């Protein structure tokens, strides 16, 4: 199964796009509903996590 180490809690996302703009790996994207989502990844996108105003960006531990 494809895991998402960095993942978005869409119940908290307000669609500001800040996390996507900060993500140089293009792992995060805006979905068809205007909310952020993540492709399967093993990344720790800390900058995107820090810039999110609602705490919707989560990073799993190993
Ligand atoms: S920064 Fe947070 S609120 Fe803004 S689009 Fe990303 S996950 Fe959603």
UniProtKB/TrEMBL annotation:
What is this protein called in UniProt? Answer: 4Fe-4S ferredoxin-type domain-containing protein
Give the SUPFAM superfamilies listed for this entry: 4Fe-4S ferredoxins (SSF54862)
Query: What residue stretches are annotated with the 4Fe-4S ferredoxin-type domain?
Result: 4-33
Q: Which InterPro entries does the entry link to?
A: 4Fe4S_Fe-S-bd
Q: Which organism is it from?
A: Spiroplasma sabaudiense Ar-1343
Q: Pfam families given for it?
A: Fer4
Which superkingdom is the protein from? Bacteria
């Amino acid at each position: 199964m494809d895991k998402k180490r960095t993942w978005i809690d869409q119940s908290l996302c307000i669609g500001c796009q800040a996390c996507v703009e900060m993500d140089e790996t293009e792992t995060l994207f805006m979905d068809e509903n205007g909310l952020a989502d993540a492709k399967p990844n093993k990344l720790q996108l800390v900058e995107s996590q820090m810039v999110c105003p609602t705490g919707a960006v989560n990073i799993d531990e190993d």
